[in-house]
Amino acid sequence: MKELTALLAGLIFGLGIALSGMANPAKVINFFDVFGTFDPSLLVVMGSALVTTFIGYRIVFKSQSKPVFEPSFSLPTKSTIDASLIGGSIAFGIGWGISGFCPGGAIPALGFGGVGSFAFVGAMLVGLIIGRELKHGNVFANPKLESKKS
């Protein structure tokens, strides 16, 4: 049942992304082109998402002590703004502005079969792997060289 619920939520999310235009990189880039072909319609999409999330979280947290399919809510505990958060935000913004895709829009866009969405998702996966390795200090570490140094 947990997997079916996740699938349904993903399908609804993907449909919303596709219908709103968030899976169309040209529409997203036009949103960022404030002094050119500016398209403010994504403000409605983002505002609607913000309002829905704000109301939804309040309803869920007041009516339930835990999620339906998990033993507890998984909420972030970190509240500091650090270099990792700032660097990730900058990388996200640059990638979104250049490509017109964000992860939430790129995954549903794969269904349209465009080469750009596949390139973005591939690059995103490589970036995730590199980021994980950087976080753990393993980037470009060669285990054979490390063992010879000891």
Overview of the structural elements:
- This protein is mainly α.
- It contains 7 helices and no strands.
- Helices cover 69% and strands 0% of the residues.
- The N and C termini lie far apart (51 Å).
- The model has no long low-confidence stretch (mean pLDDT 85).
Short structural description:
The chain is an all-alpha fold. 69% of the residues lie in helices and 0% in strands.
Key terms for this structure?
150 residues, mainly alpha, 69% helix, 0% strand
The outline comes out as globular
Report the order of strands and helices.
HHHHHHH
Secondary structural class? mainly alpha
Q: Rg, please?
A: 19 Å
Kindly report how far apart the N and C termini lie: 51 Å
Binned strand content: under 5%
